[in-house]
Amino acid sequence: MRKNIPVDFTDVYIxxxxxxxxxxxxxxxxxxxxxEFTRKTGRIDAWKWKPGKDNRPHIFWDSDVAKWIEATAxxxxxxxxxNLEKQIDHIVDLMAAAQLKDGYLNSYFINVEPKxxxxxxxxxxxxxxxxxxxxxxxxxxxxxxxxxFLDIMLKYVNHIAKTFGRKSGxxxxxxxxxxxxxxxxxxxxxxGDKKHLELSKYFIDERGKKPNYFSIExxxxxxxxxxxxxxxxxxxxxxxxxKPVRELDEALGHAVRAGYIYSGMASLAAESGDRKLFETxxxxxxxxxxxxxxxxxxxxxxxxxxxxSYEYDLQNETAYAExxxxxxxxxxxxxxxxxxxxxxYADVMERALYNGVMSGVSLxxxxxxxxxxxxxxxxxxxxLEEHVKPERQKWFGCSCCPxxxxxxxxxxxxxxxxxxxxxxSINLFISSSTSVNIKGNPVLISQKTNYPWDGSVSxxxxxxxxxxxxxxxxxxxxxxxxxxxxNGANIKxxxxxxxxxxxxxxxxxxxxxxSFEMPAMLIEANPEIRHDCGKVAIQRGPIVYCxxxxxxxxxxxxxxxxxxxxGFTVSPDDSIFKGSKxxxxxxxxxxxxxxxxxxxxxxxxxxDKFRLKLIPYFIWANRKSGExxxxxxxxxx
Amino acid sequence: MRKNIPVDFTDVYIxxxxxxxxxxxxxxxxxxxxxEFTRKTGRIDAWKWKPGKDNRPHIFWDSDVAKWIEATAxxxxxxxxxNLEKQIDHIVDLMAAAQLKDGYLNSYFINVEPKxxxxxxxxxxxxxxxxxxxxxxxxxxxxxxxxxFLDIMLKYVNHIAKTFGRKSGxxxxxxxxxxxxxxxxxxxxxxGDKKHLELSKYFIDERGKKPNYFSIExxxxxxxxxxxxxxxxxxxxxxxxxKPVRELDEALGHAVRAGYIYSGMASLAAESGDRKLFETxxxxxxxxxxxxxxxxxxxxxxxxxxxxSYEYDLQNETAYAExxxxxxxxxxxxxxxxxxxxxxYADVMERALYNGVMSGVSLxxxxxxxxxxxxxxxxxxxxLEEHVKPERQKWFGCSCCPxxxxxxxxxxxxxxxxxxxxxxSINLFISSSTSVNIKGNPVLISQKTNYPWDGSVSxxxxxxxxxxxxxxxxxxxxxxxxxxxxNGANIKxxxxxxxxxxxxxxxxxxxxxxSFEMPAMLIEANPEIRHDCGKVAIQRGPIVYCxxxxxxxxxxxxxxxxxxxxGFTVSPDDSIFKGSKxxxxxxxxxxxxxxxxxxxxxxxxxxDKFRLKLIPYFIWANRKSGExxxxxxxxxx
Lengths: 637, 637
What we know:
Chain A is of the alpha+beta class.
């Protein structure tokens, strides 16, 4: 059922004024910084840890190492680096030495609690770690051609395939933290080995069947009731295991797990042509899109269980909106787009990428947000909202986000282009080039743009020999006016599901010039989102803006934007991030000097009118800690 | 230092269109309902509980029984009731039988854990229970003249006085939950026994001294670290025991405990003339008034520790604002007013009473709020905000509020008048009469008013013989325009600290007519309260209004009040509460029909303009569960 095949990062060359500096920082700063914390916390030596030594491994440390390898591998492909390769090879050697004869591989369960192997799939993340190791091995193989890590993982996958399944003697389990499902499908994409597809399908199909495996397993362990986290109630929706996955109809539970299993489900639907599964994925995607997503593309609003809350419950100051969850949404959207070319998927992917994902990493690449709140009121008294940090952190106890954002940035090339039998589609606007084979002919595609700061995109389409195919250019959902020219002239084209479709006989040097009008816009939220009622946000192109205390002083919660006469000006502003544009808008707030000490008084506001400065949300908190707000009071008085 | 002596409930006769029905409901419904739960949960039989039986006593059950007795006693004085008296006498008999020879009295520590007596003052509420029993005994003695309960308590107080103090062999402790301090001062007011004053003074003075008694005690119990509730951190400010009380300068910690100890401190200052202590009380009162009080008079915004949050942190939907805390604020204000006649204290007392306290009980008197949120969005998904109920409850596990609100309503007579050497002051406007002795002459004072629905108050001052004294009438802080006439004619009078002071030769039948203009008013909150920024509330007289879904449909968070042209109309509305007035105001909200399914879109609101109906906040949630809001978006568009 997969119609569009992403052009892999290996085949895409990015030379972009926005992204190239971010990709370089990721390679030069983030990857070494993450390595350093990974190493010094003991995660690497975990493979050879022995009881009595320091740095006792944690159950999900392998996943952090795996994601660091994966991120690094993506960079190695374009920027070979002997030292980095050595670091990875050293880890691979440790894994090879640690791997048990039967193929089992997990630093915690080999070294710390061998007897607990496969006894608590619900909580202990074994298959989750395996999934990330598989993804790491694939990336390293693709980047370097080295097989050792891949072979280790193939052996481990064989062991897993023997252990889990519906045959007699096998465990009918699946992981409490999904990830292996999508990893096995990636592996199938590389190996073409049906066993890998089948194993993923087993994990997906078995999930949530009654009686629930997690309960059976818990009973075997002699546990009464349920994990304390949820009290006595069986909240298997936390694990997306409350019912068989094809019956899911609302995005619930831990948002990262949800995003990963939905991605796995979409990949499986693409491979297997399972329409029912795809319809389920659409239902879940739409539930997120229409009821559970922040304007930043952040998902999972709730700290409790790092989870989705109920529909439209999207609080701003205490938003969880984990960086990893926004990344998971990128994965999910990207997989949906492979099945159905509809710009709605690319819009979500872009929204999450430019806002909720990129907000997760500092401009120097060395500090990270786990939670990405939509407004900030830093105060030491916020003891109940400790998950919301006003400043990015260098590391976390559960440090999933740093390596996750690193691997996404390093593999950005995979998200720009897709090809199919009929031609090629352009999903993200990033100055880059690729060469794809369409109907047997190599075609060079290149983009030049100053996106997201500017709406002009120039695409060159150069087939080796003139040939007939379709070029589909996404029309972003945020854009209401645009023009498209071919070789400088207006042409006729159709728009299908949000893509401008140009079918013709292409010849070398053909040039499409698209100009998306990109005004600063006031955005309102659905009245069901009570937290945003009476408020507006400002967006320009795909970029969501915010106001920061550093530019505008305190009391951002009191700022009202003049919605009748916003008087936007958009201008270049390199002060925080090179190439960035800032927005000024007419606004007012109450004069602090107009107040005595009273808490309440008859309404008689004295307003300061001023020009509010807005900066892109993803670069907030790169100066000193202070207030921040995306949603601002609507006002004209 | 006490200048004003409250006229006791025993000497005040209330015949008021607002309060008499509430007082009758309290007597006829609340008191029996509270008794029934008190009895059937085992709280009464706790005095004779034996190991192995059902309903094992809880450490603070005695306080619930005591407060029920206290509330009932206040009603008995004006409405003798043999059955109720029998119920109390039965309990008193049980207490007499349970009391140990040394005077000790506590159903939990006598029957359940005798060895733990006085071993954990920090957490186990022993002296707190004693305090409430003392208050119950005083009320019952005043109402009926019966001494048995009082004698039991005098014996217990003797035991406590022997146990605690600074002499060798005594424990230098004080209670983790304050209450006994104010109770002992009440007892001193009755007995004139200096020992009772001294014991209270000891508890107040000793509190918070270093080394902290709670730490010493915990060490003796072999406990490491601190109570799990706070992690390892010593958060003695939760108990107002982080430093000696005279050094306190910010309202912190558990709000009910804070309100009780501040009340005790103010009473002690009044008795002892301790100016430093009074200045501390003023500092704390002002900290609450200017930085930590909801517009409803609710205090303690935070669920965590049922405590004060940091300054200006007054969230609405998740407000804790415990009914008991608003009651404690009434106590504190009332005591401050006794030292210093300033309307600011009476204003706070009135604000809390008519809003944050009365919201705590349903109109049928049988259901109660523990938390009193300022906005409601009932949803089963609000699992983290379980303290905020959208409907009043019949009982609670920790059921302190029902009997507390019952005793306050039953003793309302004590809060209206105060007398001093120079005359009398009128602090609350409630149709009522009293006879007080001023300079040796009996003076009959009576008020007639339809307050709080109407601002006209008629006061008759009738001395037995013509005599010279002052009558002070409070000018409420909410009132900016008023007129005052004496026997139908304008007179000259001074206004001192918010009181109109009329000094003259009074003769029988003299009549003061005061008319407070009482328009509906828009109120704004200090810009430091981020939760109320961009919003207004509506208040009329002392009554804070709110909008309910039952009148206005859903999406109250989206309602904007036309602040440029509110177009208020105020009209009688008996539909929920007899005599009540409702307010209509110009408002708008976005048309639900104007929206597709999208979560976010370019700002283009389609507004429904309508007349928003507001009802008094204290009667909210007396119909079916739904949305409610006090603070509404400010809008004129």
